[in-house]
Specification:
Blueprint lengths: L1 H18 L9 H22 L9 H24 L2 H8 L2 H13 L5 H18 L10 H21 L5 H20 L8 H27 L2 H8 L2 H13 L5 H23 L17
Helix pairs in contact: 1-3, 1-9, 1-11, 2-3, 2-8, 2-9, 3-4, 3-7, 3-8, 4-7, 4-11, 4-12, 5-7, 6-12, 10-12
Amino acid sequence: MTAATALIAATSVMAKAVGRGVGGPELHPLQISAGRFLFGAAFLAPWLVLRWPGVRDLPLGRHVGRVLCGWGGGAFLFAAATRLPLGDANAISFLAPVVTMALSIPFLGERVTRGRWAAAGVSMAGALVLAAPGTSAFRPAAGLALAAAVLMGAELVFIKHLSGFEPPTRILAMSNLLGLAIALPVSLPVWRAPGAGQWALLALLGGCMATAQILFVQANRRSDASWLAPVFYTASVFAALYDLVFFDQPLRPRSAVGIALIVAGAVALARLAARAGPVPAGAGATRSSRLG
C-alpha cells in the first residue's frame, strides 16, 4: 500500500510537469487524463487478457456512471495539480470519503453516526484552512480539487454498489477500457502535439497508475481496509515531498495544518466505518476512487 500511494502521488508530479509545459507545450488536463487512460490500458492489457472476466450480465450503465465520475475527478485533480502545491491538491481530494458518506444516506440507505459526522467536520475544517476563503490567501484553484473530491466521492458510491456483485477484475477492466473510450474523444478539441519528453511522462504516468491499481488490489487481499486506510492517506505526504524535490516548493505551515486535519478526519472515518461492521448486502466494500 505504501508503494501504491507513492506511485499515486508521483502521477500528480507528472501531470503538473506536462500541464506546465515541461518538455513541450502546456497540455490541457483533459489531454493528460486521456494519456493516463491510454497508457494505463496498454500497461494492463496483458494482465487483463489473462484474467478477462467476460461481459455476461454486464451492468454497463452503472460502470459508465462510475467511470464518468472517475474520469471527471481525475481531470479536475490534474487541473488542480498544475495550480496548487501537490500536497494541498491531493489532501483536498481526500474529502471524497466525506462526499461518499453523505451520498450513502439517500443512495445506499446507510445510517451515519454522530462520530462520523464529527470526523467529516474535521476534514472539512482542513479544506477550509487550505482554501482560506475570505482572506487574502484565498485560492480559487482549491475549487478544482474540491470538484475532484465530489466526483470521486460519487464514484465511490458506484464502486460500493458494484463491488457487491461484480468481480474486481471486471471493475478494473471496465475502469480502464471505458475510461479510454470516454477520455480520448473528449480530449481531441484541446489536443496539442506533445513533445517527446511529454510522451514519455504520459506513458510513465499511465504505467504508475496501472501499477498502483494492481498493488492496491493485492494489499486489500492481504489486510483489512481499516489498517490500510491510514497508509493510503500518506499520498499527500509523498506529494508534498515530490513538490519540494522537483518544483522547489516547500510545505507551508498553513498547508501542513490543513493536510493534517483532512488526513486525520479521513482516517477517523475509515476507522469508524470498520468498527461499524460489514456494509449492507449489495453495497460491497469501499475501494479508493483515486485508482479509478
